[in-house]
Specification:
The complex is a heterodimer of chains A (about 180) and B (about 100). Chain A has about 180 residues and is an all-alpha fold. Chain A has helices spanning about 10-20, 20-40, 45-65, 75-95, 100-105, 120-135, 135-145, 150-160, 165-185. In chain A, helix 3 (about 45-65) packs across helix 4. The N and C termini of chain A lie far apart (about 65 Å). Chain B is elongated and about 100 Å long. Chain B has helices at about 1-20, 25-30, 30-55, 55-90, 90-95. The chains are: A mainly alpha (about 180), B mainly alpha (about 100). The interface between A and B is medium-sized, with 38 and 28 residues.
Chain lengths: ~180, ~100
């Protein structure tokens, strides 16, 4: 009887990558791409942007792998990079003048999520258009809290903000979102 | 009361957005292959630059040495000129003699 080859742990794959085995990093990317794509899709405007964000995340992970301390799972470390990349992406989009009115966004056929859902829901389109108008920090915190269902502590860990700061930003983001949704009616 | 209604509406929308997670299978397909290709391309570009910059080291070393020699030569000329100028100046000549 041939024993099935036991799959390597993330830590073993990290060690192998650091020793020069790029195949091990491809395996790491394959394992964690689902979570990274899931989070990044909440922020990306289209499929090309989603691909860019996800590639940037894993490229940074590859080049900074020596900085990964084994005190938390590899997935947490990659998700922290993802959160920072998404935030950078939101800031870049805002700087390049990506902030327009919700009506204009909806009329221009704005793509709120990266891959198109089977049948778009009008209320959801309104929500995503309003989310697009929030500041990068507000959008980040409300997306992680309400759409990704992360706890305040988890968000604090992902963003590097204090728990109190996360709560205050979430409260303000919710108020701003409520106002934007009200204005859309 | 109105705020509570709006909060309820927002909660319902969040719940709907959570439930309707888009299908990522097409976007994720062969992601590792594209990623590794990009990493290889980056490493190759990086190694070309490293190779070119190492090859330019002797050239820059010669430039720096030449510049240092020229600087030393110019500095000694300036010191000589200052000494001669001091001797031609009567006030300075007095100072020199004292």
């Amino acid at each position: 009887m041939v024993a099935a080859k036991s799959p390597s742990s993330d830590e073993q794959l990290v060690e192998a990558t650091l020793a020069g085995d790029d195949g091990a990093f491809a395996e790491l990317a394959s394992r964690h791409k689902g979570r990274v794509f899931g989070v990044a899709a909440r922020f990306a405007g289209n499929a090309a942007e989603l691909e860019d964000i996800c590639q940037d995340v894993f490229i940074q992970a590859y080049f900074k792998l020596r900085q990964y301390r084994r005190d938390s799972p590899f997935e947490h470390w990659v998700l922290r990079i993802t959160t920072h990349k998404c935030y950078d992406y939101l800031r870049k989009r805002r700087r390049s003048g990506g902030v327009v009115s919700a009506d204009a966004l909806l009329e221009s056929g704005y793509e709120p999520r990266a891959p198109e859902a089977a049948d778009p829901h009008p209320d959801l389109e309104r929500l995503h258009a309003a989310l697009a108008q929030l500041s990068p920090k507000e959008r980040l915190v409300i997306t992680l809290l309400e759409l990704e269902e992360r706890s305040v502590q988890e968000i604090a860990g992902l963003t590097g903000w204090s728990a109190g700061n996360v709560k205050v930003r979430a409260f303000r983001a919710r108020a701003a979102l409520r106002k934007l949704m009200e204005n859309q009616k | 009361m109105n705020d509570m209604n709006r909060d309820g509406e927002l909660e319902a929308l969040f719940a709907l957005a959570r439930k309707r997670r888009p299908d990522m299978s097409a976007a994720e397909f062969a992601f590792e292959t594209r990623l590794m290709a990009r990493l290889r391309a980056r490493e190759e570009t990086g190694s070309i630059w490293a190779m070119v910059s190492w090859r330019l080291v002797p050239f820059f070393a010669v430039c720096v040495a030449g510049l240092a020699l020229w600087q030393a030569e110019t500095a000694s000329d300036t010191t000589d000129a200052a000494n001669i100028a001091g001797l031609n100046n009567p006030v300075a000549a007095d100072l020199w003699s004292n």
